[in-house]
Each structure stands twice: as structure tokens, then as C-alpha cells.
Prior knowledge:
Elements: H1 13-25, H2 28-34, E1 41-45, H3 51-58, E2 62-67, H4 70-78, E3 82-85, E4 97-103, H5 112-122, E5 123-134, H6 140-151, H7 168-177, E6 181-193, H8 198-205, H9 207-210, H10 215-233, E7 241-252
Parallel strand pairs: 1-2, 1-4, 2-3, 4-5
Antiparallel strand pairs: 5-7, 6-7
Helix pairs in contact: 6-10
Bound molecules: benzoic acid (BEZ).
Amino acid sequence: MNSTQPAGQRWSAERYVRNARFVSDLGAPLLALLAPRPGESILDLGCGDGVLSQQIEEMGAKVIAVDAAPDMVAAARARGLDARLMDGQALTFDADFDALFSNAALHWMRRPDAVIVGMRRALKPGGRLVAEFGGGDNVATVKAALIDGLDRRGIDGESFAPWYFPDDVEYRGRLEAQGFIVDDIALIDRPTPLPGPLDDWLDTFCESFLFALPESDHAPFKAEVVEAVRPQLCDDQGCWSVDYVRLRVVAHLPAKKLATK
Ligand code: BEZ
């Protein structure tokens, strides 16, 4: 899921279903933290193909789902959702929502303060934020191999990394600076088994790195990355697991101040 479009990264709903359904499956505990109530209005930021937005609606809330990828918005609309094409770094809502939910999307947005300002503005006074995304050393093994592979070709690999992976201290500071009260924020190690080969994961999520290279170099570059990380990430049965680290956030805005005489 994403809410913005880093250079080279394309989002296809069909490819996402094939290679990344686990992302929304693993979002289920976050839904429990959100605990949507019937009649609430909820914004799903970076909705992807809308699987989790739909589950929130089934719990009786009214959801607006936004994503920056047209193909994902189309897939979410096909579920009957009110899905809108919008950059999460330029949200246009104003005190419209009781809660804001975001799963596996905020790490694609490289301007966190712009996101947080928009989230604060989108929420009603007292509104809550429940979000999870990549933090700290998320996918560090693969990321290092991708950067290393580009560096060895004389390209600044780090400059092609499309992700923002803050730690809890940094993100708490950013939220508090914009007026959020942080109830809970923590980094969680979550090594994540992949449904298929690492190659598919690289195709789905790491196109920004491939963008640095001519098409003819993509296959050898990916093969090199796969071999570099195989000892750490592939077990004896050939099953791949990536070293995901999540930053889980629960926060809220102060309720409106009572007028004093
Ligand atoms: C993540 O969900 O944390 C993630 C997925 C793909 C690439 C990088 C991070």
C-alpha cells in the first residue's frame, strides 16, 4: 500500500494481490486497535486496494479511503468504497474524521511533517490516529544489499531508497510538535515470511532502485541482491522471510477546549 509515488515505483493492484496480500492480512491487529464504532467517520490513508477499508466499513463506520496510486484507487472503488486519489503529503480534509487509520503506507511518504500536519487537520478535536508502518531498521538486510549493489556500479544507492523509516523517539517528537498526544508508540520486530521468491518482492516494492539502472541490468542486479541476502533471509526449505520492523502508533488530539467564562 502506498500513498505517494516515489520515482520508478509503480503500483498495480493485480501484482499487489499476487505478491503482497500478506500486507493487509498482517494489518488485522491494527484494526483491533482502531476499534471502529458504528457511525464513526474514518479516513484510511494509503488504502491500497481497500481490503482493510472494507473491513472497517463492515464494522459500521463510514470510510473515506485515499491513495496516490490510480490503480489502487480503482481497485478500492471496485469494492464499493468511497476511494479518492490523493497524496498523503497534501491531504485536503478539515476536521472531517473521528479517526485516521493507516497500514503500511506512511513509510512511502518522505515528507513526514507534511503528512502529520494533514492528519491533524483531517481529524476532529479528540480524534484518534492508529497507524503502523516501517520503522527503524525495517528491511535492513535487503536495503543494504540494494544500496551496496548500486554503489558498486558507481551509483549513489542511498539516493534511490524511497522509504522513510523513523524510530519511535523521532516520530513521537514530530507528532507532539503538531499537537498530538501519543498514547503508545513502539518499534516491533516482525520478520515476515513471503508468499513466493524474493525476486517477486523486489519487483513489487523495490522498483525505485531498479530505476537507477537500464532495463537490461535489472535481472542480473536482482540476482546479485538475492544471492547476497540468501544466507540471512532464506531457510533450508527455500522459504524467504524479510526482516520487517514496524513502528506502531496510537495517538489522539486534545478534545476541544471548553469555553471559559
Ligand atoms: C514495509 O511494509 O515496511 C515495506 C514494504 C516494502 C518495502 C519496504 C518496506
